[in-house]
Each structure stands twice: as structure tokens, then as C-alpha cells.
Amino acid sequence: MLQNFTSELLVKYLYHETTVAEKRAINEELIADFMLRERYTELLVAKQQLPKVQFKPTKKSVQNILNYSKRSLVGEMA
After folding, report:
1. pLDDT 10s digits, 1-27
2. Would you say residue 2 lies in a domain?
3. Is residue 1 in some structural domain?
4. Distances from the Cα of 6 to the Cαs of 2, 30, 37, 46, in angstroms?
5. Sign of CA dihedral 46, 24, 26, 10
6. Which domain holds residue 53?
7. Looking at the predicted structure, is the pLDDT value of residue 36 above 60?
């Protein structure tokens, strides 16, 4: 089966967001297609270079969001 593997699909593959069928097809094609393997490697290197930042909001920020949601819900019920 000849399939067009887009960069978007390869990114999904990198982040483990593909279906089982997509994963199987990509695995097979990566073995067979040097150009696809090169494209995948470029994306993998780019992903590895992304900063490993984790954002954690303050408790006050979370509480503000929850309070806003509650007010919005009450406003909808009125």
C-alpha cells in the first residue's frame, strides 16, 4: 500500500498519537523508505531540542479559574 506520510502524521507518531494501523504502516515505511526515515530523524532531533519546560499554575490562579467558572455557570442558570 503506497501512502503519503505527511509531516503532521510523523509528528503524531513522535508523540504516540497515531492509531495502531497508522503506527504499523509508518513502522514498515520507515524501514523501507530512506527519505521518510531522514524526515522522521529531522523531526525527532527537533523534538529533542525543544525545552523541557513544565508549567504549573499557582493555587491562586487555579482558584481564580474555578471561581470564574462557577460564576459563569450561575449566570447561565439565571
Report:
1. 346 788 999 999 999 999 999 999 999
2. no
3. no
4. 13, 13, 12, 16
5. negative
6. 7-77
7. yes
